[in-house]
Amino acid sequence: MMQYKGALAHKSMGAQLLSVFLVLLGMFLLLTLASAILGLVFAQNGQGPELSSNRNALLLVQAVSSVVVFGLTAWLSAWMLTRKPVANYMRFSKISLSWLAFGLGIYLLSMPLSGILAQLNESMHLPESMAAIEQAIRQMEDTAQAAADLLTSGSGWGLFVAELVVIALIPGLVEEMLFRGVIQNQLQRKGMNGHLAVWLSAALFSFIHFQFFGFLPRLFMGAILGYLFWYGRSIWVNIAAHCLNNTLALVGIWITNHCQSQWVAEAEEADCLSLGFVVTGIACMAVAVGLLRLMRYSSSTRLYFSSSLRS
User: Which of 228, 230, 185 lies closest to 89 in space, CA to CA?
Assistant: First the structure.
């Protein structure tokens, strides 16, 4: 087994990306097969309701899917791409709380512009000649949204904690391991321009979620996470920001479902494309870009002095 560790280290960039994709596809097919077999077993024994209407079963499937498809793919890919310890390769390096807070602040400042892109993307329509395709895409996304609504439709702190772990924390960890810790990381290691590597990995990150009418905001946030990984030099900044994003979304859903107040209704009907909101989003993003540049400078300075001290 150990002879395969680092087996892809000296392969071409294309061969490495293809290998990561094949591992991802293999994990997805393995999980699909396992789910089908499990479904047949339950059906034959007459146990439990349909999976699509069973919240606990969906939570379990969601957790296992994330760990297997993203987490295990990331670990196996990194294991074959480097002879270093996988944690070191993915940049699981120590960071200070102030550096972590700095990265989270940048991410929070970029969220208003993400909301603008989300509403803009949702309002898009394909040409009339592709109306049937658009309808099919929207039906697929409505089905996925129905499953997500079921996951967050319960009440009680126990269920909230379970959803927090499954919907916010696990995806935040394993998706960053794959898309930033492996894909973007390896693209940059093979000499690809840093900005191109950031946006390419962000595009793959958004595409893999299979939500056409949510592609733009996820692409944008994936790029912000990519720059945090590049400039922050630790994947913990990315994981924290991704988990924060998922947590805020989950909390928003819970407030909407369980709090029937006037301000909640007004927030749901807010127009993210209004002039005031757009100006605010652009202003926040301008500050975020400035802080990103400061992060890049600070990180480079720390790296320079660290190298000088070692020499």
Answer: 185
